[in-house]
Amino acid sequence: MTETQRNIFVTSALPYANSSIHIGHLLEAIQTDIWVRFQKLRGHDCLYICADDAHGTPIMLSADSQGTTPEQLIGRIHAEHERDYAGFEIGFDNFHTTHSGENREFAENIYARLDAAGHIKRRTITQFYDPVKEMFLPDRFIRGECPFCHAQDQYGDSCESCNRTYTPTDLVNPVSSISGATPVEKESEHYFFDLPAFEQVLRDWVGAGHLQPEVANKLDEWFTAGLREWDISRDAPYFGFEIPGAPGKYFYVWVDAPMGYFASLKNLLDRQSGDVEEYIGADSSAEMYHFIGKDIMYFHTLFWPALLHGSGHRLPSNVFVHGFLTANGQKMSKSRGTFINARTYLEHLDPEYLRYYFAAKSGSGVDDIDLNLDDFRQRVNADLVGKVVNVASRCAGFIHKRFGGKLATAVHDEALLQEFTGAGESIAASYEAREYARAMRDIMALADRANQYIDRHKPWEMARQDPGSAELQQVCSLGLNLFRILIIYLKPVLPGLARRAEEFLGVEALAWNGLDAPLLDHPVRKFKPLLTRVEQERIDAVVEASKESLGAGENEDTQVTSENEDTHETGAREYEDTHAVSAGAVNKYLVEDPVATEISFDEFTKIDLRVATITHASHVDGADKLLQLNLDLDGENRTVFAGIRSAYRPEDLVGRQTVMVANLAPRKMRFGISEGMVLAAGPGGEEIYLLSPDEGAAPGMRVK
Asked: Greatest CA separation found in the chain?
């Protein structure tokens, strides 16, 4: 089905130019990037725009404490942000800054339009003043008790507990976050935006279905409570744009921050000779979407659309709100090492792991998402390595070795191919609706079908019986074509893997409209590993590198961290009664008595190491550590009980080749007879790695 091309303008919330990108920022950026990449893959004109939020008192104070200027600080942070986002394959069409000429122009023009229409009010107010620092206190530098729900330690402008907004003077028992002093009240003239005048406009917009149901329900609560005029000015000293005709008065950062979306878009289109009004004008036919966290939805679903309507601009097509990110079921913690910066992650782990995990956990609602590090490792290893990449690795060697790297000229199973291509519209609908978790489940179900197809036809047996058979070529060729379709479906999530797959398959950039065009009589390159398993030691390294020293009063975190460390299992006892060998927990005589392990060369040559194919794997009833493996040893079937259950799922092992000790005397165990030993390396537990031969090895081949 051919879609009409859409013109789409997409943004994610602006990161503040005062700190590094962390995994909380990445949740939103990755969710947005997936949606944008999907739209582009479908052939739509979709622009992904973002910028640094570069204004406000925190920037000014931080620069002062570092002995630099705000401009120098935001310039340095901007370069860091661009680098880290790029490291996670976030494909911004433009990443700009709110401290720009374009943004000043939008701020002044929108303000002038609002003022001319009578939507700006001026009045003298009493606000908090820090007598120690001799400055008016921005809302976020005042803490106190929420006047509505009475939650403690809340900011001066909004409550994180009940999400209500208020003025700082409404706080109960306020204190200055800068000096710790009790602020005093002082008068100053301020500028207000008449938000209540736009209540009906906002109600109509919400009622037209532009928001998620949960968000619309929250807005109904705010409407019922009553909208209030919004203070849009701040007094000097302040880093930002001065309000025209009002010396010493500056636009509040939340005024010009969302305008930064338009400024960044204009910055891009000016370089491309485009017209920004085609996207933001009142009569624009383009679509405009904002991806944001639920902590800032008040600004994006009330203030921002009201500012837009009042200044003659179009309103957002939708504001997609997501929940918070937790780690291992708790708030991200620096003491526990779960407040992870982007750069720290990139130094140890592949960014595509996180992209996939976030996709596999993301739906269209505003529920919080938990990054469970154990689940993270297991899911990535099982789905991406054990299922998707496994399809290609099981077929590519035969094509390269037996058929000169050339795919067959005919499709072996048309019905299966149609099943894969026919799933495209359902998967596309899930992407469009931001139901990424559902899309990932459907894609992995297809990957299971591909592996089952390979298991059913057993190309390794075909290769032994008739190395050059046309059916062997067709089966493996279809396997690679199914892999190609899986990569198209996963390309919005895993652009790096897609590029490596495109290089291996010898094709141009894969696109959604190419689903129905299988590769026939087509050369492919020699297969190289496309993605490696997530190793626990690398996750541990990220956590350790993310930990910060604890200060006074942080014993609770210390206790949790100690408990986590104490419950790590080495797995050393898992192999003492099995036929699996692990370098970190081998048969105990091999590690406890090195002198006794010395053998002569003649004795060593008696060990018969052979390549074997795992044809079946299953759990062993009554055994927590064992898997039962059925092995094909060049036509001879062997059963081996291996202590690798903690590291592998049975379904991920079927069809895989490994190395076994073929002349080990059978050993009677309470679960049955074990007829050999498979070789593995690793410290134990979840870190066990079966030894595998290079591509092209055949069952029964002796290891030399």
From this structure: 98
